Amino acid sequence: MGSALPPEQIAWCGMDAVLLYWDDMLLMMGPDGEPVHYLYDEPIILIPECDGVRILSNTSMEFLQRVPDSTVSIFTIGSTSPAALLYDALDHFDRRSAKYYDAVADENLRLIRSSLPEAVEACVDAAGHEFDVSRQQTLLRAASYGQAFCSNFQRDRIQEMCKILRVLNAVRSPEIGIPLSIQQYKLLTPSVLIGRLINAYQHLLALKVSEYLGMNQSPGVYAYFLELLMEASSQCWADMIVRDNGGGWFVENSVRASFNIQSVSATFLFDNDLLYCTPQLILNPTFVPPPFYIIHNWMEDEVHYLGWMGATELTGVQLEVVIMHWACSKITASLVIPDAALLEILLDKLKLCKGISYAAVAAHADKNGRRKLAALLVEHEPRSSKQVPLLLSIGEEDIALMKAIECGDTDLVYLRQPLEFFGTIQARPLARDLFVTYARFYKHEFLKDFFLSTGQLQDVAFLLWKESWELGKNPMASKGSPLHGPRIKIIEKAQSLFAETKEHIFESKAAEEHAKLLRIQHELEVTTKQAIFVDSSINDTIRTCIVLGNHRAAMKVKTEFKVSEKRWYWLKVFALATIKDWVALEKFSKEKKPSIGYRPFVEACIEADEKAEAVKYIPKLADPRERAESYARIGLAKEAADAASQAKDGELLGRLKLTFAQNAAASSIFDTLRDRLSFQDGLANLNDCSNTFLRYPNLESTWKESQSILRWAFAA
Amino acid sequence: MAQIPNLDNAPINLTSIREQSQKELLNILKNVRGKKCLVIDPKLGDSLSLIIQTSILKALFLPLEHGIELRHLSGDPIQTDCSKVVYLVHAQPKLMRFICSNIHNDLSKGLQREYHVYFVPRRTVVCEKVLEEEKLHHMVTIGEYPLYIVPMDEDVLSFELDLSYKECQVDGDTGSLWHIAKAIHKLEFSFGVIPNVRAKGKASVGVADILNRMQAEEPVNSSDIERYNLFSISSPLCRTDSLFGDVILGALCHELVFFLHINNGSVELDASIMGLQQEGKKTKVPLNSSDKLFKEIRDLNFEVVVQILRQKATSMKQDYTEMTTTTQTVSDLKDFVKKLNSLPEITRHINLAQHLSTFTSKPSFLGQLDIEHTIVEAQSYDICFDYIEEQIHKQEPLTTVLRLLILFSITNAGLPKKHFDYFRRELLHSYGFEHIAMLNNLEKAGLFKKQESKSNWLTIKRALQLVVEDTDTANPNDIAYVFSGYAPLSIRLVQHAIRSGWRPVEEILKLLPGPHLEMKRGGFSNSPSFDTLSGVSSSVAKVPDGRRALVLVVFVGGVTFAEISALRFLSTQEGMAYDLIIATTKIVNGQTLIETFMEKLG
User: Fold this and answer.
1) Is A536 on the interface with B (CB under 8 A)?
2) Which of A355, A434, A466 faces B601 most closely, judged by CB atoms?
3) A514 neighbourhood in chain B, CB within 8 Å
4) What pLDDT sits at residue A314?
5) Is there a contact between A355 and B219 if contact means CB atoms under 8 Å apart?
6) CB distance A574–B394 less than 8 Å?
7) A38 - beta bridge partners?
8) Which of A520, A564, B157, B190 could hold B583 in an S-S bridge, CB 3.0 to 4.6 Å?
9) Sign (positive/negative) of CA torsion A581, A583, A588, A589?
10) What is the strand order of the sheet A61-66 is part of?
11) Average pLDDT taken over every residue of chain B
């Protein structure tokens, strides 16, 4: 007030008040009314919180906060708010011995009947803000007393508050020393609180709290968040004096308890006029503040926003987090315990919790120079994705590879970088196959070396053969020398490699033929001066020759490659048909009697839609059915019918009739013919038909038709 | 025009799976601020079109920011002005090369861009290694898009692993098995642990093993089951291994059941087929459960489909005649107009059916069908041999020939060495030496190989009644209707597994290659709901709210539409206590399956 000096420190206190600090005086400016003075005879530091300010001096820490509305409404002297009356009523009720009090209690309740729910709510709320346990109890009892008289109050509100208060009271206890207000607790979220407890080495309490709140959900973000939290804290804790000397949580807790905390008292300074109070935690001056407490609070400020970030994402804390942290601290602290014994101690606790990351604990052990313990621990990790990288990092490469193969996640196998270890992967088929697949598209040369080293000569041969096409694609390689040397050479090399093993004689021969074909094709290109031969198949080469009219060349290729007569006929006939050289075709048919019959000729003509040509060859077909069908295909009903009747085939007749369904004259021919079929034939064919029609569903209607016709035939 | 499938009637909440994937995708895109170019590998693009419509995707980003450009990943440099490039790719080393060449190209031009690479479904060491070796890993931000499952239809899930069969069988890369197990495990997280597992074949037993391991590593939480309690699952998970024969047989026999080449729920056809005027243009026709008429006819034999379409059209015409000739009340008119709404649908399907019937009525198609049945009956070796030989000599399309050859080889447990070499030689001579690599692949996969032991196909065929003599395609009474008389082996196994488990058919299972497995799984030990759940499984009929228990049928290596139809047929049978959900690495047909084995050379 009117000071010329600017304040040394300034801080928000809650939402609507500001603290100003000069040398030995603290001034609080509220939203209305006079400022409040506090005097300090030692220097202080102001630390703003969400709902007040922490005031830290050399000897004590205080918390300054505006008195919550609910507390005011109940405890203001002479207050007549419903909540105050309810509180009063409970007071009277408790002293029930005299009738008078009962009556007052009764009357109080009657007075506030309509606003009973608000009164209950206010009591619950006030209880939450209370630091004094007995007063919390009284307020909660008042709430539950009022609740009994109102039907529409949410019952679990009281239960919920009890839960919160139990947690708060537990952490506020001097052994733990985290004096959280309820609002801070809510903003902080239980998960962060548990994180802090863990960092304070209060594993047991952390475990109990998380169990009590039923928080064993496992949101994925948490792992990440916790890592950061631990990272931030580990530096501060590095020089922690408290060390667990081997007995687990209980020893730790007793160490904690042995701090000479004599008394903690909270006093409330009421100021009715200003409605502000200071719940003050006065620590006994003889109490040496444990370093962790101070450090903790400082550190906490750093970790804060991590806490906030996490808090928005999280709903709960994993039990495993608590146990994990314990295990890690245990490893750090137990340098003298032998691996096997320590493993047992650790497993004993770790197995309590499913889904714990053994790999993370193992990694910690490895960091602490206990590689053997790490190896033992990682054995227990069920997640291969975590196990394999760790095994690799601790040098257990063979086991890592084995595990990766076992779990079926092929990606993990690649982690192993097997490129340098031909020997090891050769023994493991999956690793080998994966390597080959990878190398196939990426490292051809390397793959060749690999196959050579393992004696898979045929695979080298296949690789070489494939390369020959790449060379073919490359114009530089295929031009140059007339017999495109490099390409043929590479194929010949492949051929000789195939020849090394008995099983690949076929491939060897094929490669030989391929090389020969390329030579011939090249010669053809030179003589015809047309670049249309290379890289076509033997058949295509022959066909091109025929189309070009070079029958001698075609014949030469045929004999070079011992093309069978069957193939030769099909090839030549169709080639002649494509250039519509019907004269040559006829000549060809008369050269000698074709060993495979005249079907190729018929088909080629029909496909070229040359009926006149087709008719020349159809009579030469040996099988009457084939004749019938061929005639049908070119639309000659009568000829078809004649052939079919020679074949004495009812099914065929039926089918043909369908083909000529539009043609009344033709279909009558078929009917007459069918009449002529003998009874036995008909019966036999009936069965035939049924089988066939099963296979040709779209002939089913015909089947029914022919059935009826046959029946009619039998009757006649 | 393509629509994402309607999943409302699915027996489990598939919509939530899809919505999750949508959300994750949008988050990825939102996290990269400002105008960006999204580069997708083309295969992934197909899968994504089942998750979200491109138009919606674009519209979502238009008002928010400066829009989004879509590109397909290829080796060519990306043409865009955006300074931020987001790659969304399958985690395959092959694709990483494209990305690297893209970035190198930008660098050489002095373009400065921000690169984000999101791997589907997760980042892998191999891919990152490629980036490292190209010294680009510091330039790209790496993320993951965990797309493990794509709902294709209300009862079909796809893992979108089209190469899994080849990778497992030829390369020995079992990575896809891990992926499948992971996907199933993810499903379990949503819908609860699957208590009974049956598996047949090496790969599927492998999947079951990995699944068990995952359950041990990351147990499905009991609380999750409570959360998804709407869904009381207690299904024997039956996994038939398509890797040996069965799916091949299915895929190789022509699919007589309606559509032939449906790619991810839509077909691309010449516009002229659909009766549109634009010649030569391709249009995409969506085909999935969203289309009511398609839903009705898709599982029928093609011949029957034609009849139904004819009926519909006739009744429509009749209505129309009535409408014009007799006087009608307003409400009658209203009904009629309502019916008219389905007209475009009917026209569309009639167009499609017409288009298909041009194939199915060809003699070559019928001949093919005939020979396929002859091969499956396995009685007349010589006829089959001659037929295939002739096909090669006529140089019919290579895939058609291979279909038959593989079928022939499988039913005979391989071909005698002399014939095996003969066919291989003829193939190389006719189609070119570059196919040696494919032949090698097929041999490694055991699809086309030389005979080493006597075939037991006849025994299997008889024991499982694979060839059914009298099937009525219009009113089928057995799954054999899908192939007009041949019952797919895989579905027969499912039928047995559902009815009675593996035990009664143990002897037959031993005849088929690969191990089999039957196991019960816990995972409920801590759960209070354990009793109620196991109660459900013991008496399936008592499942509350009328829902049937579920069976997840997983096909490792792919499934055909015909097999799906057969399964749907099973689930509509009276006395069937289960809803069937099909999960597969990819929907295949003979063509696509064989294509995965082909290697491009030259």
Assistant:
1) yes
2) A466
3) 433
4) 33
5) yes
6) yes
7) A26
8) B157
9) positive
10) A44-48, A52-57, A61-66, A276-277
11) 73
Three-class SS state of B551: strand
What the block records as the tokens of B469 is: 């003599």
| Domain range enclosing B106 | 14-147
- Interface contact A694-B484, CB threshold 8 A: yes
- Rounded distance, CA A469 to CA B188, Å? 48
A433 interfaces chain B, CB cutoff of 8 Å? yes
Cα three-residue angle B384-B389-B390, rounded to 5 degrees = 100
Chain B residue at shortest CA distance from A515: B433
Do B198 and B220 lie in one domain? The reply is yes
Distance from CA of A466 to the nearest CA of B (A): 7
pLDDT at B585 over 70: yes
CB-based contact (8 Å) between A469 and chain B?
Answer: yes
Query: What is the spatial distance between Cα A540 and Cα A604, in angstroms, rounded to a whole number?
Result: 17
Sole residue written with tokens 């898709």:
B298
B369-383 average pLDDT score = 81
In this complex, the residue of B126, B429, B437 whose CB is nearest that of residue A539 is: B429
Burial class (CB in 10 A: 0-12, 13-18, 19+), B124: buried
Tell me which residue has tokens 């079109």.
Answer: B49
Cβ atoms B509, B464 nearer than 8 A: no
Question: Where is B87: in which H helix or E strand?
Answer: strand B84-90
What pLDDT is attached to residue B48? 86
Residue ending a domain, choose from A643, A660, A679: A643
Chain B residues lying within 8 Å of A571, measured CB to CB:
393
- Same domain for A559 and A489: yes
Q: Domain boundary at B103, B121, B147, which?
A: B147
Strands B549-556 and B578-584: parallel
- Residue showing tokens 């709290």: A209
Q: At A588, phi and psi to the nearest 5?
A: -60, -40
Chain B residue with the nearest C-alpha to that of A474: B602
Q: A670 to chain B, minimum CA–CA distance in Å?
A: 20
Least confident of A412-416, B132-136, B194-198, B404-408: A412-416
Residue B143 main-chain phi, psi, to 5 deg: -140, 180
Minimal C-alpha gap between A310 and chain B (Å): 20
- Between CA A291 and CA B346 the distance in angstroms is 84
**Percentage of chain B modeled with pLDDT above 90:** 6
Cβ density class B340-375: b for 16+ within 10 Å, e for less:
eeeeeeeebbbbbbeebeeebeeeeebebbebbbbb
Its ipTM equals: 0.75
Which pLDDT score, from 0 to 100, does residue A542 have?
A: 92
- What residues of chain A score a pLDDT lower than 70? 1-3, 96-102, 152-153, 214-322, 352-355, 415-427, 441-443, 473-484, 649-650, 658-716
Q: Which domain holds residue A502?
A: 448-643
Question: Over the stretch B7-39, which tens digit does the pLDDT of each residue have?
Answer: 777 777 888 888 889 889 888 888 887 788 889
A686 touches chain B (CB under 8 A): no
Q: What are the tens digits of pLDDT across the range B532-573?
A: 333 333 333 334 455 567 778 888 777 777 778 788 888 888
Q: Are A255 and A317 within one domain?
A: yes
Tell me, yes or no, if B391 comes closer than 8 A to chain A by beta carbon: no
Tell me whether residue B601 is in a domain.
Answer: no
Q: Does A695 touch chain B (CB under 8 A)?
A: yes
Question: What is the distance between the alpha carbons of residues B256 and B563, in angstroms, rounded to a whole number?
Answer: 11
Cβ–Cβ below 8 Å for A466 and B437: yes
Residue B386 contacts A where some CB pair is shorter than 8 Å: no
Residue B252 banded pLDDT, cuts 50, 70, 90: very low
**Cβ–Cβ gap A442/B394 under 8 Å:** no
Work out whether strand B114-120 and strand B140-144 pair parallel, antiparallel, or are unpaired: parallel
pLDDT tens readout for residues B224-237: 333 222 222 222 22
